[in-house]
Amino acid sequence: MLKMLAKRAAILVLPIALAACAGSDEGRDVPLSIDSGTANQPFPQNYRVEVLAFMRTYLNNPVGIRDAAMAEPAQRTVGGRLRYVTCLRFTPHESDGSYREPRERAILYINGRLDRMVENASEICPGAVYAPFPELEKLTR
Predict the structure, then answer these.
(1) Model pTM?
(2) What is the residue extent of each domain of the chain?
(3) DSSP class of residue 43?
C-alpha cells in the first residue's frame, strides 16, 4: 500500500517539477549558436551576407534605409568573452514616412556565424571605423 502511494505521489509531482524547469525566455538574450567557449574565435567570412539577411527579418520594413554604414568585424570583449563584433549604423524609414536619428547596433558572432544583435551598442562599439554599406540601403521586402 505504501509503495503504491509513493508511486502515485511521484507521478503527480513529476509534471510540476518538469514545469519548473521550463522558464520564459522573456528578457533574456537567446543565442542562435552554441558557444564553444573558446577564446580563439574564427573570423566571420560571410558577415555581410548574414547581416543583410538578418536585417531583412529584423526590420518591419527594410525599404528606404539611409546612411547605412558598417565597421569590419573586430575582436572585442563582450560579457567577459572575446567575440568578433560588427558595428552597424543606419537610419530606418519609419512607418509614418519620416526619418529619425541614426541607430547604432552591434552584431556578435560565435564560431564565425551571426549570433545576435545588441541594440545598445554604445559600450561595445566606441571607436569603430565605419565604411558605407550601400547594400543595406538597397534592401527590399
Answers:
(1) 0.70
(2) 42-141
(3) P
